[in-house]
Structure formats: structure tokens, C-alpha cells
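Q: Given only this backbone (85 positions), what sequence would you predict?
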């Protein structure tokens, strides 16, 4: 992760799907000195994060479970429509 951050100078994060959330396991670097909303060892609804959406795109089972559980609104830009997700 450190090598990827050094090569890209972009925040690098490692996370896994945990039911309908992303569990963030590690982080390397920073986001231009700005606060990042994904705390290490923290959980955020998968439908509310770029990483979560990428992980859901590759798991039909997890996507269906997330939709069945109901899409959570965390910000005004959160996706709450299954068709949009």
C-alpha cells in the first residue's frame, strides 16, 4: 500500500465487505491534507463509498443483500434507489 501511495500520491485504502458495510482495515497516505471519512477499523455502508460500490459491483450476493437491507442516506449525494445503485 505504501508503494502504491508513493507511486500515485493518492490515498490508498484496504477494505473488505462485511455484510452491507465496508470495513476499513488500513490506510496509506493522505487526501491532500484533508480529513477522510473512512476511519481505519471503521464501518461505512457499502452503498455510500466508492470502495463499497466497487466491491458490490463484483458480488451479486452482497449487492442483493445491501439492497434488501435498505440503502442508507449518509449525505445528500447518497444513492438510495436500488435502480441507480
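A: Predicted residues:
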Amino acid at each position: 500500500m505504501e508503494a502504491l501511495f508513493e507511486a500515485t500520491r493518492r490515498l490508498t485504502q484496504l477494505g473488505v465487505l462485511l455484510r452491507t458495510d465496508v470495513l476499513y482495515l488500513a490506510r496509506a497516505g493522505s487526501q491532500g491534507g484533508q480529513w477522510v471519512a473512512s476511519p481505519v477499523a471503521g464501518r461505512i455502508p457499502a452503498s455510500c463509498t466508492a470502495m463499497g460500490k466497487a466491491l458490490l459491483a463484483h458480488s451479486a450476493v452482497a449487492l442483493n443483500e445491501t439492497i434488501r437491507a435498505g440503502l442508507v442516506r449518509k449525505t445528500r449525494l447518497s444513492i438510495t434507489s436500488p435502480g441507480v445503485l
